From TrEMBL:
It comes from Rugosimonospora acidiphila. This is ABC transporter ATP-binding protein. It holds the Pfam family ABC_tran. The lineage of its organism: Bacteria, Bacillati, Actinomycetota, Actinomycetes, Micromonosporales. The keyword ATP-binding applies. Residues 4-224 form the ABC transporter domain. Keywords: ATP-binding, Nucleotide-binding, Transport. It comes from the Bacteria.
Length: 324
């Protein structure tokens, strides 16, 4: 999968209402991008153009992959079909066999924990549950480009986490994700790049989300190499050559869901790791600690304890302070 490229894209509604003017934007493969802007700035318009649902008045879009998942800002729930019937139907329209589509629909609705019944008519679902169906329809066939218009809107805490995992899974599989949201914390956690729309123009926001791009995407080979060269028993060196203390992180598999496997030792800054009852204790350089935590949470792990002083945690050796 390559780069999706918007070149000099403009969009006009009606005779002279220009919403986007001369937008050039790249969405790389295996990355997530957040779009921000005030209400009415044109975010949904841009997303629809990216998804191929709306044509630009001027300019071109290239590199859009064949399988696009799209979650609109308003999902029309006024349907007599149940969530399962609706998703199965959509899956069939998209080329899945009926039985496969039904299995996929059931898996997705289970994962998102649709309350109110997968067999109840969609029009009777609450906003949050309708949003879960909206998400599920975008995922019936693994998307290579996932376009999400305020996707967290109305979701409960559990589905919030699942959506974060889904974004990571699409990115890990080499796909692209573009989403809108207004919250800094969400953008920082889920986007490697950030753009904002103002007066029809799109500009990159320096540094992407609040979490630096290299920490979200983990492509920091230099950092990785540095951590592997460090002696396991000594304090690892900082990027500027000064000694940085290591931190200790204790992660546990949550009781309800099985976390995804992570190659902890291959992550930047990891000095060593020790299995402890129900989880793993990781010693990591202090500057890589936040990124490791983010990666762990995204993969469905629970963080039991973080200590800036790794030696202190080690001394307890998985004892009371390090267990739940
Ligand atoms: N189909 C349409 N026909 C005419 N005008 C439209 C259409 N779709 C959007 N607009 C107008 O274009 C402007 C941008 O709308 P858009 O929905 O893209 O903004 P947005 O940034 O997503 O807003 P919000 O944050 O409120 O969802 C708005 O003034 C809107 O009224």
């Amino acid at each position: 999968m390559g780069v999706i490229r918007l070149e000099s894209v403009s969009k006009r509604y009606g005779p002279n209402r220009w919403v986007l003017t001369g937008v050039s934007l790249e969405v790389p493969a295996a990355e997530s991008v957040a779009i921000t802007g005030t209400n009415g700035a044109g975010k949904s318009t841009l997303l629809r153009i990216l998804a191929g649902l709306s044509r630009p008045t001027r300019g071109t879009v290239s590199g859009r992959p064949p399988v696009v998942g799209y979650v609109p800002d308003r999902f029309p729930p006024g349907d007599r079909l149940s969530a399962t019937e609706y998703l199965t139907h959509l899956g069939r329209v998209r080329g899945l066999r009926g039985a496969t589509a039904r299995v996929r629909a059931t898996e997705l609705l289970d994962r998102l924990e649709l309350a109110g019944g997968a067999r109840a008519p969609i029009r009777g679902l609450s906003k949050g549950n309708a949003q879960k169906v909206a998400l599920a329809q975008a995922l019936m066939i693994a998307p290579q480009l996932l376009v999400l218009d305020e996707p967290w809107s109305g979701l409960d805490a559990a589905a919030h986490g699942v959506l974060g995992e889904i974004i990571s899974e699409v990115v890990d599989a080499g796909g692209s994700v573009v989403f809108t949201d207004h919250r800094e914390s969400v953008i920082g956690a889920h986007a490697a790049h950030r753009y904002t729309i103002q007066a029809g123009r799109v500009t990159a926001v320096a540094g992407g989300g609040t979490i630096p791009r290299e920490l979200v995407g983990w492509p920091v080979d230099a950092d990785r190499t540095a951590s592997r060269q460090q002696p396991a028993d000594g304090p690892p060196g900082g990027q500027d050559g000064t000694a940085l203390p290591s931190a200790c992180v204790v992660l546990f598999a949550p009781r309800r869901a099985r976390p995804r496997e992570v190659d902890w030792s291959g992550l930047p800054g990891v000095v060593d790791l020790t299995p402890v009852a129900g989880g793993v204790r990781i010693r990591v350089t202090a500057h890589a600690c936040d990124a490791l935590l983010l990666r762990a949470l995204r993969a469905g792990w629970s963080v039991a304890e973080v200590r800036r002083d790794a030696a202190g945690c080690e001394a307890r050796d998985g004892g009371a302070a390090c267990s739940r």
